[in-house]
Amino acid sequence: MILALGACTAPGPGPGAAPAPSPSLPATSRAAAPVRSGDCDAGVSRDALPEWALAGFNYDGSGTPHVLGDRGDLMAITFQYPPVADPENGTKILWVSRLPVETASPLVIDAVRADGRTAHQELPNGAGPSSVTIPAAGCWELTLTWSGHTDTMRLRFT
């Protein structure tokens, strides 16, 4: 069993970190520019997890599907890929912040699917283990906001 509690407190971006994307609007405003479905699987990795994301793991995480946000500040560890769109029970995702979290606040997920459908969820405990309730299958672009930080990523849900 893998257990991770809380967020990482490692320092900011280091060498090789992904460049910061241009600012984005909330998901509900981005519906006019849908996500291209080919983008969803591009960032999925099964390589060893970065050192800053290993809290709670008793191995290097190799084989565990994970996606790093576009800014490199938040990682979604999905344990299965693609995750399941289940609006009632959700799907398990471990969110790991690379940035310091001094005052925990909810992790807010604003999502837009390739066809413009939107979803919103607030995870009251912030980054950490969660049950994400995406309402339907498809390629979703997630705008993730937590403790004064924002990152984006694309995930395919089945």
Report the total helices. Answer: 0
Assign the CATH architecture.
Sandwich
Based on CA atoms alone, the radius of gyration comes out at: 14 Å
Please name the CATH topology: Immunoglobulin-like
What's the CATH C level?
Mainly Beta
Apparent shape: globular
Helix content: under 10%
Structural class: mainly beta
Low-confidence stretches: 1-37
Strands of the biggest beta sheet: in what spatial order? 1-2-3-4-7
What is the chain-wise order of helices and strands?
Answer: EEEEEEEEE
Strand content: 25-35%
Distance between the ends: 24 Å
Q: Can you count the beta strands?
A: 9
How many domains is the backbone divided into?
1
- Major sheet: 5 strands, antiparallel
Tell me about this structure.
The protein has one domain (34-157): Immunoglobulin-like. Helix content is 0%, strand content 32%. The chain has no helices and nine strands. A hairpin with a 5-residue loop joins strand 2 (66-68) and strand 3. The radius of gyration is 14 Å and the shape is globular. Residues 12-38 are annotated as: Disordered. Residues 12-24 have a biased composition (Pro residues). Residues 25-34 have a biased composition (Low complexity).
